[in-house]
């Protein structure tokens, strides 16, 4: 299936505190997407989709 991964945007620490976790949603999480999710496992995974 097709997958898409959004590259993280660099944001200054003034916007996000050092201890705040990002809310992340992922589309196309099968196969290679699983390794992308492993890279952000410490964040809040709030939505997943793999058709």
The run of helices and strands is EHE
Beta content: 15-25%
Number of DSSP strands? 2
* Main sheet strand line-up: 1-2
> Tell me about the biggest sheet?
2 strands, parallel
Determine the oligomeric state from the structure: single chain
**Distance separating the two termini:** 7 Å
Task: Give the count of helical stretches.
Answer: 1
What key phrases describe this protein's structure?
51 residues; single chain; alpha+beta; two-stranded parallel ribbon
Summarize the structure in words.
The longest helix has 8 residues, at 32-39. Helix 1 links the parallel strand 1 (23-27) and strand 2 (44-49). The protein has a domain at 22-51. The termini are close together. The chain has one helix spanning 32-39; strands at 23-27, 44-49. The chain has a two-stranded parallel sheet. It is elongated. The chain is built from one helix and two strands; from the N terminus they run βαβ. It is an alpha+beta fold. The mean pLDDT is 72.
């Amino acid at each position: 299936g097709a997958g898409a991964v959004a590259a993280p945007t660099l944001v200054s620490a003034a916007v996000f505190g050092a201890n705040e976790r990002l809310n992340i949603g992922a589309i196309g999480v099968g196969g290679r997407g699983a390794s992308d999710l492993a890279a952000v496992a410490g964040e809040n995974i709030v939505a997943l989709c793999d058709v």
